Amino acid sequence: MKKVLVVYASRHGATRGIAQRIGDVLQTEGFDVDIAPAEHAAGVGAADAVVVGSAVYMGSWLKDAVEFVKRNEVLLGDLPLWLFSSGPLPGSSLDKGQEADPLTNALGPQEGPGSGGRKKVEEISAATHPRDHRVFLGAFDPDDPPKATSERLVRMLPAVKNALPAGDFRDWDAIDAWAHEIAASLESSPAQASPVG
Ligand SMILES: Cc1cc2nc3c(=O)[nH]c(=O)nc-3n(C[C@H](O)[C@H](O)[C@H](O)COP(=O)(O)O)c2cc1C
Q1: Ligand 1 pocket check for 53: Cβ under 6 Å
Q2: What is the chain's pLDDT, residue by residue, as a tens digit (197 residues)?
């Protein structure tokens, strides 16, 4: 049975929920699935495929997700790899609408002011060659207190405070469909050779 490692970085749980859902779909498709937070995730060497997702805050992936990819860069580069970002809140000032490039919507422009977080994700992508990087709508509960100083400060800014729509916008159909795509892609590629002896 092929092993899939699903790794996530989440501050408030929305991304963890997406990772869990992807893992559930892959399990129902017959894969042996392990789901782990990026700071504790291990076992890349034993996996046949890896999915890594991060929440996006102010145009950047969370540090734990970036560091997970960097510390496993060589192994991930040899495995089927999928990335996802859990980000845009529809109607927020950060959301440029459905016509915009999804990565730009979540992580900002490729160049110029505000491109730092995007560049970091592009660097780790260039090193690991993911088969896809999907952006999923996220969730925001203003009653859930900030979990990082930077988030506390940003959430206090009036421009941000008024621009973050509250709600759970996660599109479970889109998430399920993507997980099925991953399963189909893995089913059509040959299993990794098992060590002999
Ligand atoms: C202060 C703040 C900044 C955010 N910045 C971004 C952003 O730059 N791009 C984006 O797509 N989403 C942004 N979001 C939305 C979050 O990424 C979204 O709510 C995500 O699903 C949260 O995931 P988590 O619950 O796993 O932490 C921001 C949310 C907050 C509260």
Answers
A1: no
A2: 999 999 999 999 999 999 999 999 999 999 999 999 999 999 999 999 999 999 999 999 999 999 999 999 999 999 999 999 999 998 776 666 667 799 999 999 999 999 999 999 999 999 999 999 999 999 999 999 999 999 999 888 888 877 889 999 999 999 999 999 999 999 997 655 444 44
129 C-alpha vs ligand 1 centroid, how far in Å? Answer: 25
Residue 14 near ligand 1, beta carbon < 6 Å: yes
Ligand 1 pocket, residue 183 CB under 6 Å: no
Claim: this prediction has a pTM higher than 0.90: yes
Q: How many other β-carbons are positioned within 10 Å of the β-carbon of residue 106? A: 30
Measuring CA to CA, which residue among 166, 143, 167, 146 is closest to residue 156? 146
